[in-house]
Amino acid sequence: MFDVLYLAFSAVAWAIVGYKARAWFRDRGNTDLGLTALMTSGVPIVFLFSAPSVYRAFDRLTGVANLAMVFLYSAVVLFASGASVLLLRWTSRGDEAAHARAAARSRWAVGVLAVTWATAIVCFAVGRPDDVEHPRDFSTAYANAPGVVAFLVLYLAIFGTSLAGLGTLCPRYAAQLGRSWLAKGLRTLAAGCWLGLVYCACKLAGFVLTWAGHDVYWLSNGVAPMSASVAALLVLLGFSLPAVGPRAAAWRRLRRLGPLWREVTAHAPEVTIGESRWTNRWPFADLEWRANRQMAEIRDIQRGVRRHVEPAALEIARRKAEEAFLDEHRLAAVVEAAALRRGLANQQTGHVPTPHADSVVMTVSADPAEEHEHLARVADVYHDPMVDAVLAELREASAARRP
User: Fold this and answer.
1) Suppose 206 and one of 136, 173, 220, 362 were both cysteines; which one would form an S-S bond, judging by CB atoms 3.0 to 4.6 Å apart?
2) How many CB atoms lie within 10 A of CB 255?
C-alpha cells in the first residue's frame, strides 16, 4: 500500500515539477522561477525514496543499508536551501545594492546549509550501528544511537527553519495581492509549510518520548510521514496555482463562452481570427489567449449591432429582470443578452431603429476577470425564457406600430 501511495504522490509531484520547469525554459531570465523549479524537484525524489520497495532496491544496489534515507533527506535539504534563497530574494527587493546584499546573503546561507548537512551526513556514517534496513521506522529504530539522532536533529533544524520562514512570509505577501491566483498560491504554500512543521514536531516528540521509554511508533512513523506527504503536495500546489489557476479559469470561460461565441460569430465571421497552430493538436493550448480572443470578438459584434438595437429593448429587459428580483449581476447579463439577440435579429432584416441604443455593453468592472465572468453570465442566459419574453414583447410592439 505504501509503495502505491508514495509512487502515486511522486508521479503527481513530477508532473507539477515538469510544468514549472517547462515554464522556466520559456522564461530563462526569471531567476525566481528557475529556483522554484529546482527546489520543488526535491519533493518527488522524497516521495520516490519513501516507497519501501524503492528504498530497499536502492540500498541493495549501493550495498549500504539505509543510504536511501540520506538521499531522501538530501532532497528535503535541497528544497530547504532553495526556500532560504527565495526568502532572501523576496525580502531584498530594491536597488542594485539590495540585490547585491541578497546575493551575498544567499551565498552565505547556502554555505551554512551545506556545512551543516555535510556534518549531518558524517554523523550518519559514524553513528549507524547496524546494517538492517528501516525504510519506515528509521527515526525510532535508531533513537538511542547518538550519531543518527544528531543526523536527524540537524535535518529537522534545517527543514523546520526554512518552513517557518516561508510559512511566515507567504501570508504577508498574499495580503498585498488581493484575490489574485498568486495570493491563493502563497496561502496554499503557507498551509503546506505549517503542516510540514507538524511533521517536524511529531518527529521531535517521537525522539523525546522514545528516550523516556515510551513507544510512540504511530506518531513518528504514522502521523509524521503522512502529514509531511500532504504538506509536500500543498507546497507544490501553492507553487503551481499562480500558473495553473488562470489557465483553469480560462478553460472554464472557454466552455461557457463557446456556445455564445459560435452563435454570434456565425453572423459576422469576418471578425474572427485563426486559431493558434497548437489548438487543433492540443485542446489546452493557448487557453488564456483563446478566452480573451473570444471575449474581444463577441464585444466587436456587440458594438457592430448597437445601431440595430432600440432603447426599448434595454428598458424592457431591465424592467422584467427587476420584476423577477434578479441581483445586479444577473440583471446586467439579461439586459445585455436581450440587446445582443435583438440587435442580431434586426441586423439580419436590415432594420435600423431611430433612435438606437447608446450602448449594448453593460460594463460591470474595470477588472478584466470580472468582465470575463460577466460575459460568461451573458452566455448562460442568452436563451433564457426571460430573454425570450423580452424579444416577444418587442416583436408585439413592432407589429402594433405597423400600419
Assistant:
1) 220
2) 12
Query: Model confidence over 183-230: pLDDT tens digits?
Result: 898 899 999 999 999 999 988 888 778 777 777 777 877 888 888 888
Residue 166 binned pLDDT confidence (cut-offs 50, 70, 90): confident
| Per-residue pLDDT at 334 | 92
Angle, helices 146-174/181-211, rounded to nearest 10 degrees? 160
- Residue 26 grid cell: 520559456
Residue with cell 504522490: 9
Burial class (CB in 10 A: 0-12, 13-18, 19+), 236: buried
Q: How far apart are CA 62 and CA 67, in angstroms?
A: 8
Q: Answer whether the bond into residue 368 is a cis peptide, omega within 30°.
A: no
Q: 310: buried, middle or exposed (CB in 10 Å: 19+, 13-18, 0-12)?
A: buried
Q: What cell does 10 get?
A: 511522486
Compute the distance between CA of residue 244 and CA of residue 239 in angstroms, rounded to an integer: 9
242: which residues sit within 8 A by CB, 6+ positions away?
Answer: 180, 181, 182, 185
Helix/strand/coil for 296: helix
User: Greatest CA separation found in the chain?
Assistant: 105
> Could you tell me the pTM of the whole model?
0.72
Cell numbers at residue 345, please? 435579429
Q: What is the pLDDT of residues 19-44, one digit of tens each?
A: 778 878 877 777 777 888 888 888 88
